[in-house]
Specification:
Elements (H helix, E strand, L loop, with lengths): L5 H21 L3 H16 L1 E9 L5 E7 L2 H7 L3 E2 L1 H10 L1 E3 L2 E4 L1 H4 L28 E7 L7 E10 L7 H34 L6 H13 L4 E6 L8 E4 L1 H7 L3 H4 L4 H4 L5 H6 L6 E7 L5 E12 L6 E9 L1 H15 L9 H10 L6 H21 L46 E10 L1 H8 L1 H18 L5 E6 L2 E9 L1 H15 L3 E3 L2 E3 L2 E9 L5 H17 L3 H5 L2
Helix pairs in contact: 1-2, 1-6, 1-12, 2-6, 6-7, 15-16, 16-17
Keywords: Coiled coil, Nucleotidyltransferase, Transferase
Organism: Streptomyces halstedii
InterPro entries: Biofilm_reg_signaling, GAF, GAF-like_dom_sf, GGDEF_dom, Nucleotide_cyclase, PAS, PAS-assoc_C, PAS-like_dom_sf
Length: about 550
């Protein structure tokens, strides 16, 4: 069963990887991009050495950047390895999805080929998965567009933990290689476009040659390109698009010329588009395709002029980032959800609970809001306004709003309060139901972890089907679950606990065997002024009181 700390390790790795990819996008030139790729292997992926081998126009690969060892960098940077030798390495390597791994037991035949290489001596591995100084790991980079056109190869060495990378480390390296290929392709494209823009600004006699160069760079760019009007009533209207953008949007050029990007952007992203400055602006947003779907793209704007004193136009580079966004969402989900059950994990539970709490108790905030409301009513009376005053500090639906940090009641935070548990006064709050399975340990010990995991998965499913949309069912760890249900009175929370317990009691069949667990529930209440740990501890303690109040046989029976 998965260690509880693994999601935090994955989250830290994801943050480092995200930072390394962000550094790639900040590079200003191709050389800076290549060095940023090499540096990212060391700083973001946990290897001591990283090398970028780039395919030259003649097909051979040159060491374009190196990181991790200045002596090795001085020795092999700029050296060339033949395409034949590289293809031999990639073909003989053990496939780890798109990665290629050559263990030291097989790599001795490569010591004398013409590929530049650097390695250090070290002790023989003591464990099966320990990294050997002569182990080789390569991550091929392919040009965008879905083909297998080799752009270059990342070679890495000496993981800092001394172990061969596991599934998570391999996935991170493979994803980084994909992003590095995009960054290198974009750096080349930007370099070509910048050269085209410089030519456009030259003297009048060189204008026609510059325009032709720009046209070719525009038309045959692998990413989407568009030219739009700048200023006036038709600001932003598309004047010209290349074939790549037409394919990306699923619309012919004649149709795209009827629109501006403001007409195509997702309604939720219109603010992002408007905040993007015209010159040098950049934004990530969704554009509508002809089939009604939306595609994540990165927009990068530049301003070009038709002539030295002529009208200015907006040149927009449109890059498809749908796969990257999908990977980011997938990584974020895996870092915040339990791998076994798919439920939110302990960190995500605490995050959601923390979002509902503030440091000031409800009574203090209510007093501040009341004082502010009284002052506002006095001002209204002084100016002759005797009508009902707006609900300063209170929402229109009757829920109280928090005061601003300086005491003003204009923040939209809704205070979380606990209902009275001994009498029904009509108040409702955020119930925290702490669930501990009864009899689960004996199932785990008797039938093994496989059966125990199947029981946890089924219990998670049953709990999820018993709650409302918007409620949270989370796995805290082991056989402990927590349910967050908002808008419940004390009696409602007690009824929910009974329904959840009754849903867990029926036998669970695993591999033809019926097993059964019970459940003990403790009901706590989240309230502003409490910390997340205090809320969970209160529900936990009530669960143990409830567990001790019932006999062992009764607990098993639910």
């Amino acid at each position: 069963m998965e260690a509880e700390s693994e999601p935090y390790v994955r989250l830290a790795t994801m943050r480092q990887l995200h930072q390394a990819v962000a550094d790639l996008n900040r590079a200003r030139s191709l050389a800076d991009t290549l060095q940023a790729v090499a540096d990212g292997i060391v700083t973001g992926l946990g290897y001591e050495l990283g090398c970028v081998n780039l395919v030259r126009p003649d097909g051979d690969l040159v060491v374009a950047a190196f990181a991790g060892n200045s002596a090795a960098e001085a020795l092999i940077t700029g050296r060339v390895g033949s395409r034949e030798s590289w293809e031999r390495r990639l073909s003989m390597g053990e496939p780890w999805d798109e990665l290629r791994f050559i263990p030291h037991t097989d790599g001795w035949v490569l010591l004398d080929d013409d590929v530049p290489q650097w390695h250090t001596d070290g002790p023989e591995p003591r464990f099966e998965d320990e990294w050997h100084p002569l182990d080789r790991l390569y991550a091929p980079m392919y040009a965008s567009g879905g083909g297998m056109d080799l752009l270059g190869v990342l070679s890495v060495d000496r993981p800092r933990n001394g172990r061969r990378p596991g599934a998570w480390g391999r996935e991170a390296l493979q994803m980084y290689a994909s992003q590095a290929a995009i960054a290198i392709s974009n750096a080349r494209l930007r370099a070509n476009m910048q050269r085209a823009l410089v030519r456009l600004e030259r003297e009048q006699q060189a204008l026609r040659a510059s325009e032709e160069s720009f046209r070719q760079a525009f038309e045959y760019a692998p990413s989407g390109m568009a030219i739009a009007e700048m200023g006036g009533d038709q600001h932003g209207r598309l004047l010209r698009t290349n074939d790549a953008l037409c394919r990306l949007m699923g619309r012919p050029a004649s149709v795209l010329r009827r629109y501006s990007f403001a007409d195509l952007v997702h309604p939720e992203d219109i603010g992002t588009l408007l905040r993007t400055s015209a010159e040098g602006g950049r934004a990530e947003l969704r554009l509508g395709r002809r089939d009604g779907t939306y595609l994540w793209v990165s927009l990068r704007n530049s301003v070009v002029a038709d002539t030295a004193d002529g009208p200015r136009f907006l040149l927009t580079h449109v890059e498809d980032i749908e796969e990257r966004k999908r990977n980011e969402l997938n990584l974020a989900h895996r870092a915040s959800h339990d791998a076994l059950t798919g439920l939110p994990n302990s960190a995500e539970l605490r995050s959601r609970l923390s979002a509902r709490l503030c440091e000031r108790p409800h009574s203090v905030a209510a007093s501040a809001a009341s004082s502010a409301s009284t002052a506002i009513e006095a001002l209204d009376a002084a100016y002759g306004d005797t009508g009902p005053s707006p609900a300063h500090g209170y929402r229109a639906d009757g829920l109280e709003g928090d005061a601003a940090p300086d005491g003003g009641p204009y923040d939209h935070h809704v205070h979380t309060v606990a209902p009275h548990e001994e009498r029904d006064d009509g108040s409702k709050g955020l119930a925290v139901l702490f669930c501990d399975l009864d009899g689960f340990k004996s199932i785990n010990d008797r039938f093994g972890h496989h059966t125990g995991d199947a029981v946890l998965i089924e219990v998670a499913r049953r709990l999820t089907t018993c709650v409302r949309d918007g409620d949270t069912v989370a796995r805290l760890g082991g056989d402990e679950f927590v349910v967050l249900a908002d808008g419940l009175a004390a009696a409602d929370a007690a009824d929910l606990a009974v329904r959840l317990r009754n849903a867990i009691i029926p036998p669970i069949r695993v591999d033809g065997r019926a097993v059964r667990v019970g459940a003990s529930f403790g009901i706590g209440w989240a309230e502003c002024g409490m910390t997340v740990e205090e809320v969970l501890s209160s529900a936990d303690q009530r669960m143990y009181v409830e567990k001790r109040s019932r006999s062992k046989v009764h607990r098993r029976a639910g």
